[in-house]
Amino acid sequence: MSEARSGAPVRDARRLGAAAALLLVLAGVLVAVAHTGGLQAGDTGAAVGLAADRSPWLTVAALVVSGIGNTVGSAAVGLAAGAVLAWRGRRAEGLCVAAVPIVTSGVFTALKRILDRARPPADLQVLAVANESLPSGHATMVAAAWTTLVLVLWPTLAARGRVLLTGLAVLWAGAVGFTRVYLGVHWLSDVLAGWALGAGLACAGVTVLVLAGGRHRTAV
């Protein structure tokens, strides 16, 4: 093995670790500012503006996307992809893809209970939801599951496959997050914090995978 090849996992781990740190710091800042009310004006403007622009067909579409992209759905993506990878002999990568959403679920649930932020008012909600709001569980889980999947599958894909998978992940995560604000069940800052937290935890999880020798190259 060449010196360049043997040093690749270390470089990957450093890049992923740096990305994880930046994203988790961003998530922490968003959570702190949102929790103290620093983003309330923007949150209220987004919630009221989207509520005023609702249409029947878009509301139905949002309900479908939000239902499919819920926390259980994102966890199922991770478990299914992890099972396929394990079946193909990539057990460490499969474990990572399956485990990150599960760990993420525990993290965002704990944060919700600690922060105990109220949801948007009932008159803005299409769905009646009353539990804690910050961060959005949908946004956190979809970002965690799909970011992990992109990072793990990246080395095995051709350029077109990378573009397609990354595009799908970004569009799906964006759509799921949008529906939560559109349906009036989350503030915009809940979703932004959830995206940053989920992606940060995904990068952290794949960093552990790289350091454990489960793979050689990453998307970073």
Describe the protein's architecture and organization.
The chain is mainly α. It has a single domain (3-211), classed as Vanadium-containing Chloroperoxidase, domain 1. The protein is 75% helix and 0% strand. The chain has 8 helices and no strands. Helix 4 (71-87) packs antiparallel against helix 5 (91-115), helix 5 (91-115) packs antiparallel against helix 6 (137-153) and helix 5 (91-115) runs antiparallel to helix 8 (188-211). The chain is globular, with a radius of gyration of 18 Å. It starts with a helix and ends in a 9-residue tail after the last helix. The relative contact order is 0.20.
Layout of secondary structure:
Blueprint: H1 3-35, H2 40-52, H3 56-68, H4 71-87, H5 91-115, H6 137-153, H7 159-182, H8 188-211
Helix pairs in contact: 1-8, 3-7, 4-5, 4-6, 5-6, 5-8, 6-7, 6-8, 7-8
CATH architect. name: Up-down Bundle
Range of strand content: under 5%
User: How much is the average pLDDT?
Assistant: 92
Output the helix-strand order: HHHHHHHH
Q: What number of structural domains do the residues give?
A: 1
Count of alpha/pi helices? 8
Number of beta-strand segments: 0
Labels describing this entry:
single chain, 220 residues, mainly alpha, Vanadium-containing Chloroperoxidase, domain 1, 8 helices, 75% helix, 0% strand, globular
